[in-house]
Amino acid sequence: MGKKAVHAPLMEALIRYRTQGNASFHVPGHKNGQVYEHENIASLLQEVMSIDATEITGLDDLHHPEDVIREGQELAAKCFGAEESFWLIGGSTVGNLAMILTVCTEPGDLLLVQRNVHKSVLNGLMLSGANAVFLDPEIDTLSGLAVAPTTDTIKAALKAYPSAKGVLLTLPNYYGMGHDLKATAKACHAAHVPLLIDEAHGAHYGLHPRLPASALSCGADVVVQSTHKMLPAMTMGAMLHVQGERIHRELLRQRLAMVQSSSPSYPLMASLDLARWYIEVYGTDAFTVGLAAADAFRKGLEQLPRFRLLEPTQQALEGEYAHRGISEVLERADEGISGYSTQDPFKLVLYDTWGILDGFGLKHELETYGCVPEMSDEKHVVLLFTLGSTAKDASHLLQALVHIDNDIRFKETAGEPGATEKEQQRLELDFSTWNNDRMKGYSSPVPFGLRPISPDQMDTVPVDESAGRVAAEMIIPYPPGIPLLYAGETITEAIALRMSRLRELGANWHGVADESMLTIRVFRLQ
Ligand SMILES: Cc1ncc(COP(=O)(O)O)c(C=O)c1O
Known about the structure:
34% helix
């Protein structure tokens, strides 16, 4: 790998700060870690604390950048293809909030929003008091996973709601599935609205020929990326990128200042500076080792045909389930083409073609062999490789799968009664925690706001009997953090069933009133 001379202005300023060793008469209270000097328990953190500075002379100010932070952000904009980039120290979460608060400025402003979005988007709608018209995402017929709305759906919604302030989509999805956004951007711009993209999972897009194009390069106006997810920044380190005239930049700055701490973490910001520096120093070579690791895993998996990876092609179907004679799956797949055209080569979505281990079970087994996946759903396990992954990681993972495959507990028993029936049942499920209920195009406007629901407006009912009622709380399986329900959404049979199934499969939940998920809060019937 050839090394270029590239600056990381904030990182360099922090190294100077540490070397100078000036006496601190300022926050933070740990005084560059001095407090913990003799405490073994803190030794790991002490190194970090030695650069955990604040807005003193020479270290600039995130909310009024004039020096090293400004330079770092400008370099980031250049690297990621934006006109202007903003470092985020609260993850894509704050980026999504700021993006919505910038575009929806009056209560009741209307935003077209893909339904299967991260909870931060729904929280942004609540904060801004916006009305959302939800857009139905395409479902990939083979995997059953929701991707994003088609351009046709977006065009139809834009036509029906010409007062919309913008269109907000999430691409790629948690599974690395996506499609080219150029046509969508063009449709939005023809309707004079900005395209807002939650690209939390695609910070690395466009940085290597094998990676899909970035949302910015497709024409999106504002893009939020979790640099900490797919690039090497520290957790919570993210970026918001803007281009063009459709976004009110001054308002955006104000909104960012509103949702971000006035004491942003310097190690975190430095890690953003460093992640961009690393990409610039090594260029596409930065991805060579990680991609080779993912490829080695793919290749090794050919020796274990029981386990398959999702691919955005029909070829994946060939042989798939066919030997098991499940005509329904073939029929479904026959009618459809993949609901997506791009797949992140770093996201490997694995499943057991025998249907014996569901996604949660497979994840658990991998963990017992020391391999910790990113997440699982009813069928799949998402294995996240990055530029930091190695051939050793790939080999460890393959070994784990060999063990699982050999384990008698997970062997298919020939003629096992009910095996086909069991699989059939699984296939009837709408597979993903990522999916919501189908809407046929787009919804009517849904008002969001912050007014709490008072106890006398609510009843608590068994989840299994909740169909037909209106949810009075957000129900969020986590990961991926896509609300199955928001407060005010009618609970359909399918969603009630999904909640029960996810509960049985041991899914994790965020913020639910009853953590056992046996009951749910609903609006009291009038
Ligand atoms: C699609 C999507 N958007 C936004 C977020 C929030 O990102 P962060 O964790 O960086 O705040 C997530 C988190 O998983 C996500 O999956």
